[in-house]
Here is the input.
Amino acid sequence: MTNIQQNQVNELHNQHVLAQQQDYYKIHKIETDSGTIELSMAQIRDFLVAPDVEISVQELKMFLGLCQYQKLNPFIKDAYLIKFNSKQPASIVVSKDVAFKRAFANPNYDGMESGIVVLNKETGQIDQRKGTLYIKSREELVGAWAIVYRKDIPRPTEVIVNFDEYVQLKDGKPNSNWSKRPAIMIHKVAESTALRKAFPDTHQGMYDESELGQPIEVQNSPIIEGRIAQIKQPVIEASVTPQQIYQESIPAVENGNDIF
Here is the structure.
């Protein structure tokens, strides 16, 4: 064994020891809406995160903690841990379906109203309307709104969000999804925000893909490489690669910036 190979073995051993010390392989039983699952940081790293992206122990712990607290099953796409590259913080995204299912299951939920806010280019008048329909040639999309009603609270939860504060940019311009479906995207932001405010106990930390999740602040946290990145295995020709499997499991991504 050469010195380089020995150093690689020592490095892998040190990572393994560090991972064990931080409960990297510990299995956690989680009671989710779809039943009991077993989840560990190792499983998240190897099966739920892109194999070629560096992920930290802290990011794994944050995702595991959210799944435990909110009883989410990432294997059926209740939640995603998304990180495009090592320069960007990871984001935790929760399926919009989960948020609505939980609202509907709450006996105090009494419905929602939502829509968009547009500016008439000729008159300068602002119109707050239901739905997402507007005429681009005559109107400018400036925001969205949502109102959630609860039977046990006399006043509804009202939210109005500004388009410019949420639109996701790429090279200074709205990315693919926000360019093609701006009204739908900002409308989803308003609904997601309203549900979190109306139901803080069951929706805390649950961010929709239109908000691109909540960035995880990481400080002095070691990087854990996935098994695919650690071990050089023989090349096997296959119709589907591990990277393709991962990409198909999350909302569509264009050039690492757009998320659907």
Remarks:
- The first helix runs from residue 3 to 21.
